[in-house]
Each structure stands twice: as structure tokens, then as C-alpha cells.
Write a structure and sequence with these properties.
Number of helices: 18
Largest sheet: 8 strands, antiparallel
CATH topology of one domain: Glucose Oxidase, domain 3
Structural class: alpha+beta
CATH class of one domain: Alpha Beta
CATH architecture of one domain: 2-Layer Sandwich
Distance between the termini: 72 Å
Strand content: 15-25%
């Protein structure tokens, strides 16, 4: 028993002990939370079934209850005269999704769609099956239920570039009010009045626990290199290292459905149907009039929209639904045997934040000793006080942004995510390897390092990739998975930037604070790269091609742009070109990926789009 208890808290969720551990959490949380009152709207499947023999009408139908769909459902149902139907393929998030430390345990669970990418010759070579996997949420709250919870808005250049490309109303100054509208930030945050909101639904806080002093030592080293360590990101500063905010409160995840739908779950003009799959958009004379839905019992119904159909199924689900409905690239739809309704570049312009898992820093931590009661101590601290190891995500809140070509630049090219792997906690090292899909050969290397020294992995993320991929259908059946071509490193400049990041991480080793504490540069060895001269450009490029994965930020597959932009699918008001009363509201509309984690911009998009819809239909209703 003691050997089991000596596991790290995250790793201990595997197997029989993990099941018992989660039962313990659920039982005690239920007792502490007034009989575990359900924070989500009720499932209205029974109501829909009772109406199946007659026409079913709503003013608005929203497909997908994720980060964008939850926002839109709340905002549109604020108008009491409007009826809103939200259709979600998943169910309510499970209790385990609330616990930040279990984040890597959530990949592959029922709340995860999990798509395997198409194989590439020059990327993901040391991943399982030689392919990367993408994880996305299948539950109310979408990917906000299984993400690392980091709240990062991107920078001014990102949004100004959207506006410059012809997207009226999407500059930084024009989208900032919608970030603020969503936020409920602590009142003492620096720059609060200018950059942050305090009255929104989304609770945003600091992670309240650090497992190791390595985060503070890293910040000192960054300062000694002459780089900034701002008090807070998402304000006026876009580079440097700092501890990021997250969508959490009292040590628990705040997913978007909990934040936006929980407080209004009894609103009578909002119906939520769960475990239902939207098969097709109903189109009549170039107008969206409803959707065909398969309910959780297998029964098929058609629901009609009196005003609009809104697609918020995410950067993979949205292009799939559009294409099986006949909206997409003409030749591809014909190849799939689908009648072409509107010829648009749906599924193209796929962008993602590819992440190199090879770099980090390591050190001897003499205070980090095995403790047989570590798991129970952490569980008690978390359940009783909302603090401790279970309230954080293994150091992931330490985040850095720099331009590896010019460290003095005010805009970054690379983002570093910290991931703490303590010595002796071999199960956490195993879990890290499993979560990122590393093959057995690399997994053994990661575990072996965990036997020797503490490691802070610095996951190195390419912020503005030039390489662009594509989502394509596998068949005309809406229930079949799609084919995802990430095309990582199709452009050599992308791989060159990641390789250049080695210089920065190695420079940390030479700072006085790192020398004082004997903190060393570390890289994960890739046996396949042993034929190259160590630490040469060729060696690092080999490493990048083998152990780069993803932090799951796909965007862009229903690109926003003006009508004269042949690359675009929706206009700047997010209306699908050539189809009336059909709108897309999710990360797929981003013309270019933002410079940071994409959940916050997705929520902003939904806030802004909800105002577009209100402006159109409230004015029309008054006539």
C-alpha cells in the first residue's frame, strides 16, 4: 500500500487506486457542496422527443456547447422573447475535470473526441504510431473542460492583423471590450481598469500553489538575462516570463459552460439537448432553415430555426458539418459524392501551435523526497482548503514569450510552457509521456531522467506558424471521423525558429542564479538522432521532427474575411458567404492563429458575435 501511496497525485489516478481516489474526491466534494447541486442546465431530450411528431421551432439553433457555444447560448437567451436551442454531442463534464492536477488524465476519456492526424514524413516521428493525436472536448464546455486552463488573450499585433486583412471591427482596440465583458478578474490586478473586466461570468485567477521553487528561480534567471517579468500577462506587455492566470477559482476548474450556463441554467427560453449529434444543416434556396439531429436514443429529428443556425462545433467539427451539408470545396465534395450547395474553402487554412517537447532545465532538489502519505495529504489539503498539489497543473502556469531572433522585440515568436517533473515521481513522468503521445523509446528516456533529477520541461511552442494544414472528409457520413493534415514544418522557417530557441534555454544555464543552484540545460535524447553531431543544427532539427507535438490549438478552418477574399468562408460578421441565416462562431473563423493559448480569444469571438446577432435581429423585431 505504501508503494502505491508514494506515487504522485496525478499518476495515482491510473488503475484501481485512481478509481478509488476519484470516488473519494467525488464523495467528499458532494458532501461539501450541498449535495452536489448540478451546475448545468437540464437535458431537454425528453421534451424534443415529445414534440417529434410535429414541427419543432426555435429562433436560434446553436450547434456545439463548447467555449463559444456556451457563450452564445447565454447571450442570445438574455432576450426573453427569443427561444434558443443548444445541441451538444457530449454530456455534462465529469467530476474529475474539475481537479486541475488531473488534466493529463483527461486525454482519452469519454469527454475527449481524440483524433489521430494523418502521418507526415517530417513530423511526429517519435510519437505513437508515428502520428500526433489531437484532443478536443466532448462535453458541455467543450475543450475548456479538458484544457490546461491558461487564460491568455494574444497580443495587439494579432488582432490588428485581422483588421488589416479586411475584417472590419476586429482590431485590438475593438475586440478588447469583449475580452473585458467576459472576465471576472480579481480587483487588485495591475492595469485592471484599462485591460481587464471584473463583472463578467468567467472567473479568472492565479494558480494558488507552486510545487517547487524552480518557477521563482527561472524568473530570476530571466531578469538576469535582461528580459521582462511582468506582473501580469494580457495587459500592455507581450513578452517576458510570468505566472499566467487561469480559468479557475478556489482550486477548481471553471469551464465555460459552468461559467456561462450555470448561473442561468433555469432560464426557460434556453433548451439544451445533450448526447445529440447534428448530422446536417437544412438548406433551402441558399438559406439555412434548420438542422437534422440524431438524439442519444438514435431517433432522428429535424429542428427548424426561425432566425439563424449557428455553428460552434470547433475547428474540426465545424468544417465537417459544413462539408457534409454541401458547403465546401467543390472538387472535394464531388469526390465524396456530396451535392455542392456553395463552393467555399472550408477545412483549409488549418493552423495549430506545434510544440517541441525536447527542451528544459534540470537540477538536484534535495528537499524532494518520497513521502508515503503524499497522496492522502494532498487530497486532504485540496478537499478541505482548495489548495495544494491538486489545485495546479504541474508548473504549467509559468509561461514565457520571446522572439528568439531578437530578444528585445516587443512581440514574441515562441511561447514556453513549464511542465514540472519531480524526481522520484516516475508515474508523473510516465503520464507526461502518455499525454503527449510519445512512443516507448522516448517514454523510457523521460522516465530515466525523472530517476536522476527534477526537471522543468520548457515546452517550446511556435506562435505564428507559416505551415498551413487542412481538414478533409473521410466520407459523406456525418458520424465518420475526418482526415486531418496538420502539415507541420512544411515551411522550413517554422523548424528554424524552434531550433533557434535552444540558444535562449542554454543561456539560462549561464545566469548567476542558475550557477548558484547548479541548474542545468536539459534536452530529451532521441536515439534516432544519434547519427548527427550532438547539439548541431542538424541534430536539433532531427529532435524537433521526432518529438514535436501539439497543445491542441487548431484554428482557421472557416476563415473570416471580406467577400472578395477567396480564402474566406465567413464575412467579418461571421455569416457564411452565400448562405443566409447561417453563422459560424468558434475558433475556426480566426484568419491567423493568435500568439498564445486560444481559449480566451474563442470566448471573445463569441461575445462579439452575440452582439452582431442582437444588433441584426432586435432591430428587425422592432420593425
Amino acid at each position: 500500500m505504501e508503494s502505491c501511496l508514494a506515487q504522485g497525485c496525478t499518476g495515482a489516478t491510473e488503475g484501481a487506486l485512481g478509481s478509488l481516489f476519484l470516488q473519494l474526491i467525488q464523495t467528499l466534494m458532494s458532501a461539501r457542496c450541498s449535495l452536489n447541486k448540478d451546475p448545468y442546465p437540464a437535458d431537454q431530450t425528453t421534451y424534443i422527443l415529445s414534440k417529434a411528431s410535429e414541427p419543432i421551432h426555435y429562433d436560434f439553433i446553436i450547434v456545439g456547447g463548447g467555449s463559444a457555444g456556451s457563450v452564445a447560448a447565454r447571450r442570445l437567451s438574455e432576450v426573453g422573447e427569443w427561444s434558443v436551442l443548444l445541441v451538444e454531442a457530449g454530456e455534462n463534464p465529469s467530476a474529475s475535470t474539475d481537479v486541475p492536477a488531473l488534466v493529463m488524465d483527461l486525454l482519452g476519456i469519454p469527454e475527449d473526441w481524440e483524433n489521430e492526424l494523418e502521418a507526415q514524413a517530417g513530423a511526429c516521428l517519435s510519437m505513437k504510431n508515428g502520428r500526433c493525436s489531437w484532443h478536443r472536448g466532448k462535453a458541455l464546455g467543450g475543450s475548456s473542460t479538458i484544457s490546461a486552463m491558461l487564460y491568455l488573450t494574444g497580443n495587439k499585433r494579432d488582432f490588428d492583423a485581422w483588421a488589416t486583412a479586411g475584417n472590419e471591427g476586429w482590431s485590438h482596440d475593438e475586440v478588447l471590450p469583449y475580452f473585458k465583458k467576459s472576465q471576472q478578474m480579481p480587483p487588485d490586478v495591475p492595469w485592471s481598469s484599462r485591460f481587464f473586466g471584473q463583472d463578467g461570468p468567467l472567473l479568472i485567477r492565479n494558480f494558488n500553489f507552486s510545487e517547487s521553487a524552480i518557477q521563482d528561480l527561472l524568473l530570476q534567471a530571466v531578469q538576469q538575462l535582461g528580459l521582462p517579468t511582468p506582473d501580469v500577462f494580457n495587459g500592455p506587455h507581450f513578452t517576458g516570463f510570468a505566472k499566467a492566470h487561469g480559468t479557475l477559482a478556489d482550486g477548481k476548474r471553471v469551464n465555460t459552460a459552468k461559467a456561462y450556463l450555470g448561473p442561468i441554467k433555469d432560464r426557460t427560453n434556453l433548451h439544451v439537448v445533450k448526447g445529440a449529434h447534428v448530422d446536417r444543416i437544412v438548406l433551402e434556396n441558399d438559406q439555412a432553415t434548420g438542422v437534422e439531429v440524431t438524439l442519444k436514443n438514435g431517433q432522428k429529428v429535424t429542428v427548424q430555426a426561425k432566425k439563424e443556425v449557428i455553428i460552434s462545433a470547433g475547428s474540426i467539427g465545424t468544417p465537417q458539418l459544413l462539408m457534409v451539408s454541401g458547403i465546401g470545396p467543390r472538387e472535394h465534395l464531388k469526390e465524396m459524392g456530396i451535392k455542392v450547395e456553395v463552393d467555399l474553402p472550408v477545412g483549409q487554412n488549418l493552423q495549430d501551435h506545434v510544440t517541441w517537447l525536447g527542451l528544459g532545465i534540470s537540477y538536484n532538489n534535495d528537499t524532494n523526497l518520497p513521502r508515503p502519505m503524499k497522496l492522502l495529504d494532498a487530497a486532504y489539503e485540496y478537499l478541505m482548503h482548495g489548495r495544494g498539489e491538486l489545485s495546479t497543473v504541474g508548473g504549467v502556469d509559468i509561461v514565457g514569450f520571446i522572439d528568439v531572433l531578437n530578444w528585445a522585440s516587443v512581440y514574441p515568436s515562441v511561447q514556453f510552457h513549464g511542465m514540472y517533473l519531480p524526481r522520484h515521481d516516475l508515474s508523473r513522468a510516465e503520464f507526461f509521456a502518455k499525454a503527449f503521445g510519445l512512443n516507448d523509446e522516448i517514454r523510457r528516456e523521460v522516465v530515466e531522467q525523472a530517476k536522476q533529477r527534477d526537471t522543468l520541461q520548457l515546452l517550446t511552442t511556435l506562435l505564428n506558424p507559416k505551415s498551413v494544414g487542412e481538414v478533409r472528409l473521410r466520407s459523406s457520413e456525418p458520424g465518420d471521423s475526418v482526415r486531418i493534415f496538420a502539415n507541420y514544418f512544411a515551411e522550413q522557417s517554422d523548424i528554424d525558429l524552434l531550433v533557434k530557441s535552444v540558444e535562449f534555454v542554454k543561456a539560462l544555464e549561464d545566469t548567476p542564479v542558475f550557477k548558484e543552484h547548479n541548474i542545468k540545460f536539459y534536452h530529451t535524447k532521441v536515439p534516432t538522432c544519434a547519427d548527427y553531431q550532438p547539439e548541431t543544427k542538424e541534430y536539433w532539427e532531427c529532435s524537433v521532427r521526432h518529438i514535436s507535438g501539439t497543445i491542441h490549438h487548431p484554428v482557421g478552418t472557416a476563415r473570416m474575411g471580406p467577400s472578395n477574399d477567396q480564402r474566406s468562408v465567413v464575412d467579418p460578421w461571421l455569416r457564411v458567404h452565400g448562405v443566409q441565416n447561417l453563422r459560424v462562431i468558434d475558433a475556426s473563423v480566426m484568419p491567423t492563429i493568435t500568439s498564445g493559448n486560444t481559449n480566451a480569444p474563442t470566448i471573445m469571438i463569441a461575445e462579439k458575435a452575440s452582439d452582431f446577432i442582437k444588433e441584426r435581429w432586435m432591430a428587425k423585431d422592432e420593425l
